[in-house]
Amino acid sequence: MGTTQLESVPEPKYWHLKTVLSDALDSEFAVGEILPNERELAARFGVARATLRQALEQLELEGRLQRRRGVGTTVAPPRVGVAVGDYAHGWTDTSGEDTWQTVDSTEAVPPAEVARLLELAPDALVHRVRRTRMTHGQPLAAELLYVPAESVPGLAAIDTPSGLARARAVLRELRRLELEGREQSVELGSARADDAKELDRLPGAPVLIVTTRYVAEGRIAAVAVATYRADTCRLTFGDAAGEELLAG
């Protein structure tokens, strides 16, 4: 590969470099191909490695690149639609290529913000159900579903204190409630170590955090905090389809 020097431009150098790199991805690299290391790329484009990292981080955020454990930085595949609708954040799991997989459940004190959304005291115990969303066999999102005891009163008769059986029991009892509505918010964040491990990404990778508050029988029945991979996802809105996350 030849050497491409950047000319002086009014925009930040890393932003201009991002455009140059994007063109190179289109013309020189195939989907899944591993990029040269940072030293080689910085030398090719005549920039400092700090500038290069900023450009690479922006391309990752835009879904052009993926950083994978033990592999490196690769060219991301085209995005496909993954709806964030009733089936995705409802009481039931789905079947087929795109599905939530229930992992386990335990009693826990929720984070302060979740307790506030549930309208509970800061030290109140709730059922915390952990699920992973898969698409085409790959992890797309990790979710923690927080359920107050009063939302699943029938659970008192179940002896299993934790684990997969308990999680399924919580979801089964939750389905008995008639869902009246949902309130959702989305924010950009960085993957914590546990989320990064579940999503096969590096800690600090960009993520979309979708918080859903469920209303049933006139009260807040549960709160879900789902962490989506932002390197291959973006949120769109449509009158027909509702919210949609696009993911690769």
Textual characterization of the structure:
- The chain is an alpha+beta fold and 248 residues long.
- It folds into two domains: 63 residues, Orthogonal Bundle (Arc Repressor Mutant, subunit A); 158 residues, 3-Layer(aba) Sandwich (Chorismate lyase), CATH 3.40.1410.10.
- Helix content is 26%, strand content 35%.
- The protein has a six-stranded antiparallel β-sheet, sandwiched between helices. It has a three-stranded antiparallel β-sheet with strand order 3-11-10, with no helix packed on it. A two-stranded antiparallel sheet has the order 1-2.
- Strand 8 and strand 9 form a beta hairpin.
- Helix 1 crosses helix 3 and helix 2 packs across helix 3.
- The radius of gyration is 21 Å and the shape is elongated.
- About 5% of the residues have low confidence.
List the helices and strands and how they pair.
Elements: H1 13-28, H2 38-45, H3 49-61, E1 65-68, E2 72-75, E3 80-83, H4 86-89, E4 98-108, H5 112-118, E5 126-135, E6 138-147, H6 164-174, E7 179-190, H7 193-198, E8 206-216, E9 219-229, E10 234-238, E11 242-247
Antiparallel strand pairs: 1-2, 3-11, 4-5, 5-6, 6-9, 7-8, 8-9, 10-11
Protein name: GntR family transcriptional regulator
GO biological process, one term: negative regulation of DNA-templated transcription
InterPro entries: Bact_HTH_transcr_reg (IPR050679), Chorismate_lyase_/UTRA_dom_sf (IPR028978), Tscrpt_reg_HTH_GntR (IPR000524), UTRA (IPR011663), WH-like_DNA-bd_sf (IPR036388), WH_DNA-bd_sf (IPR036390)
